[in-house]
Each structure stands twice: as structure tokens, then as C-alpha cells.
Automatic annotation (TrEMBL):
SUPFAM superfamilies: HAD-like. The keyword Metal-binding applies. Specifically catalyzes the dephosphorylation of 2-phosphoglycolate. Is involved in the dissimilation of the intracellular 2-phosphoglycolate formed during the DNA repair of 3'-phosphoglycolate ends, a major class of DNA lesions induced by oxidative stress. NCBIfam families: HAD-SF-IA-v1, PGP_bact. Its EC number is 3.1.3.18. Pathway: Organic acid metabolism; glycolate biosynthesis; glycolate from 2-phosphoglycolate: step 1/1. The keyword Cell wall biogenesis/degradation does not apply. PANTHER family: PHOSPHOGLYCOLATE PHOSPHATASE. Gene3D superfamilies: HAD superfamily/HAD-like, Putative phosphatase, domain 2. Mg(2+) binds at residues 7, 9, 164. This is Phosphoglycolate phosphatase. Its cofactor is Mg(2+).
Length: 214
């Protein structure tokens, strides 16, 4: 039995359209132009605070407005669910892994409240007895502490991290945990640039990769 921990945005769920809609509500309140999807994706990965800072800078809004922008963003984030989709094959892969007796966890930079809200909305909550959000601990990814804490909460056994981004690859590397890279998410650089044990495009391949690398 292994400890298999997942990233959330860009790994299990394609949430960028909802993040974009939430962001655009904030920008509209600031009388600023909306984000397109590619711009939104380029700001995802380091949590809500960094997302809002990048969005403010991109629209040349004063730093003094950032706290208000973050407050509005977090207010909308919890309800950002309707445009989000599970990536193909995710549910089956989670069922297979759980059925094989692996312990599954979630370690995301999304704040814990919206992370838990979207897990519930997607019916994924029962798979994940351990959930760590970007604001759950004093440090967030790429610091290894949240990933290590998530693993520790799940017990003993070989560990694996599954994610989509540069941040995830660095986190796993620093934690000394093998990293499986989902190629279909919000990565900014080529697959070869990210340290990883294996990469995959289809979640049907995941159970075999876990067996091979745990
Ligand atoms: O909220 C973010 O910026 C990224 O979230 P993730 O860690 O689940 O990819
Ligand atoms: Mg991600």
C-alpha cells in the first residue's frame, strides 16, 4: 500500500474557467479589463495571494487596492464551481487506487475553504482523508512542508505525489518524493524541464505508474 497525494487545480480538475470568472468579477469591481483563459492559467500555481498580485500588476492597479482585491477574490472563490470539470478518467483512477488499498491525500495551493468546497461539489471528498490547502500551514508549495504533512497524516508506506506544475515538481523534489507529472494541466514549461519520475496524459495509466514508482 502506498501514500498517493494529488495536486488539485490542473491535475484532478480543470478549474481555470471558474478561477477566471471569479477573477473577472474582481476586475470588474475595479473597473479593469477582464482576463482571458491563457492569462488566467499563467497566474495559477502559487496560491490565491500570488494570483491576485499578478492580476493586479497585469492591469496596472495600485498596490493599495490589493488587499481589497484579495478579499473579493476569496469571497467569490468558494462558489466558483459551475465551470469546473474533472479531467477525463480521474474518477475511475481514484476508485482503482482506493480499491487497491492506497491511502489518498490532497495537497494544493488553493486555499482550504474553496478546495474543500470544490471537492465536495465534485463528489471527491470521500477519497481524501487528508487535505492540505495553500493556507492550511504557515508555508505553502514549493516548500515541502505541506506535502510532507499530508503524507504524515496518511500513515506509513512509500510516497508518491501527482501534479501538473513546476511548483509541484519542485515540491516533490525537495520532499524527496517521486513525482508523477500529468501533462494536461497548467504547466508553463516543457515536460523535460521539470524533475519527474514519470509523466502521463491519460489517467487510465496512473494505477500502473503508482505500482511502478511506489
Ligand atoms: O491555487 C493555485 O494557485 C494552484 O492550485 P494547485 O496547487 O491545486 O495547482
Ligand atoms: Mg496544479
Amino acid at each position: 500500500m502506498a501514500i498517493v497525494v494529488f495536486d488539485l487545480d490542473g491535475t484532478l480538475i480543470d478549474s481555470a474557467p471558474d478561477i477566471r470568472a471569479t477573477a473577472n468579477d474582481v476586475l470588474s469591481a475595479m473597473d479593469a479589463a477582464p482576463l482571458d483563459l491563457a492569462e488566467t492559467i499563467s497566474f495559477i500555481g502559487n496560491g490565491a495571494g500570488v494570483f491576485v498580485r499578478k492580476m493586479r500588476e497585469a492591469r496596472h492597479l495600485p498596490e493599495a487596492r490589493e488587499a481589497e482585491m484579495l478579499r473579493l477574490f476569496l469571497e467569490g472563490y468558494e462558489n466558483a464551481k459551475d465551470l469546473t470539470q474533472l479531467y477525463s478518467g480521474v474518477l475511475d483512477a481514484l476508485k482503482v487506487l482506493q480499491g487497491q488499498g492506497h491511502a489518498l491525500g490532497l495537497c494544493t495551493n488553493k486555499p482550504e475553504v474553496p478546495a474543500r468546497a470544490i471537492l465536495k461539489h465534485m463528489g471527491l471528498e470521500p477519497f481524501f482523508p487528508a487535505v492540505t490547502g495553500g493556507d492550511s500551514l504557515p508555508l505553502r508549495k514549493p516548500d515541502p512542508a505541506p506535502l510532507l504533512a499530508t503524507c504524515d497524516a496518511l500513515g506509513d508506506g512509500p510516497r508518491i505525489y501527482v501534479g501538473d506544475s513546476e511548483v509541484d515538481a519542485e515540491t516533490a523534489d525537495r520532499a524527496g518524493i517521486p513525482f508523477l507529472l500529468f501533462e494536461g494541466g497548467y504547466r508553463k514549461r516543457p515536460v523535460a524541464d521539470l524533475p519527474h519520475a514519470a509523466s502521463f496524459t491519460d489517467f487510465a495509466a496512473l494505477p500502473d505508474l503508482v505500482a511502478a514508482h511506489a
